[in-house]
Amino acid sequence: MTAALAPATALDAADWQTRRRAHEQRVDAWLTPHLARRRSGVKHPVEDFLFTYYSHRPAQLRRWHPGAGVVLRDADPAEFGRDYCTTAAGLTLDTDRVRARRAESIDWIRTLLAATAARPAHLGCFGMHEWAMVYRQTQDEVRHNSWPLRLGPEATAAVVEERGVRCSHFDAYRFFTAPARPLNLLTPTRETQHALEQPGCLHANMDLYKYSYKLSPLVPAELVADCFELAREIRTLDMRASPYDLAELGYSPVRVETVEGRHEYVLAQRSFAERAAPLRSRLIAECDRLR
After folding, report:
1. Contacts of 187 (CB under 8 A, 6+ apart)
2. How far apart, in whole angstroms, are the C-alpha atoms of residue 143 and residue 163?
3. What are the tens digits of pLDDT across the range 50-67?
4. In the predicted structure, residue 19 carries a pLDDT above the cut 90
5. CA nearest 221: which of 35, 80, 77, 14?
6. Distant-in-sequence, close-in-space partners of 242: CB < 8 Å, separation ≥ 6
7. Can you tell me whether residue 153 is helix, strand or coil?
8. How remote is the C-alpha of 7 from its chain's centroid?
9. What pTM was computed for the model?
10. SS3 70
11. Residue 41 to residues 17, 44, 53, Cα–Cα distance (Å)
């Protein structure tokens, strides 16, 4: 079988093998502790989130792909899977075949990312989405019930009621407790996702990881890893600003119930929005290239 798309770049064996090793070593630094905890039955509310919430398995994250339009010289087809094909120049992704399977997804992702990028960043949510997920629940009922609430259930509820909730992200909103949902300024749905997502949202920026792996293997594995790395750091802020007390794990709280804490949160949120912007642009450019 030959590739339908003429490749634009060719990599010698030494070059692509170096890239692959670097990617695997980078990812192993994240995977090794997670896999050790999984074998031991130990749960971590921060570090394990990206492996449990998202559907991309550790082995998939670790597997290196060069992306569409790249020829690998002296590569064994058995190492790369059924989506690759052999040409006279070397091994390459059968871009047309994969693109045909993913056409609808590529269009959906591109539309969402472009709409999000076109909006100004809103930085006034102060992380209340995590508080709304435990609102009016007992300690036993909360999602991470092995970890205490810093202020206790009643005081946590009082903060939510005082601050209100301004969440635009459907995949956060759907985890709100039933009594918290009417307190949100918006009612996000999957159907309104393209109209509501904005680049200041922590979860919209974490989801760049999801959209990058949904485009894999059409995009380089290094881009997926870049998005994962950002999502991992955002998750740390997300949980530091949450109502949980994670001091035992080494996470100092961002006390968003105070003026000082809200200021700290906004500064970090703005920084993540700035770091997410070029990744979002790269994903949009990949979608445009594939379309």
Report:
1. 173, 181
2. 22
3. 999 999 999 999 999 999
4. yes
5. 80
6. 127, 130, 131
7. helix
8. 29
9. 0.94
10. strand
11. 34, 10, 17
Do 59 and 258 meet the contact criterion of CB atoms below 8 Å apart? no
Distance (Å, rounded) from C-alpha 238 to C-alpha 130?
8
> Which structure tokens are listed for 237?
């802020």
Number of residues that this document lists for the chain: 291
Residue with tokens 């870049």, as numbered in its chain: 226
- φ/ψ of 71, rounded to 5, equals -100, 135
Predicted pLDDT of residue 6: 44
**Residue 68 in contact with residue 93, Cβ under 8 Å?**
yes
Q: Cite the DSSP H helix spans in 174-291.
A: 193-196, 202-206, 208-215, 221-240, 259-290
The region, left, alpha or beta by phi > 0 then psi within -120 to 50, assigned to residue 177 is: beta
Q: Is the pLDDT at 1 greater than 60, yes or no?
A: no
Which DSSP helix (H) or strand (E) runs through 43? Answer: none
Is residue 151 within 8 Å of 257, Cβ to Cβ? yes
CA gap 127, 108 in Å, rounded = 27
pLDDT at position 291 is: 83
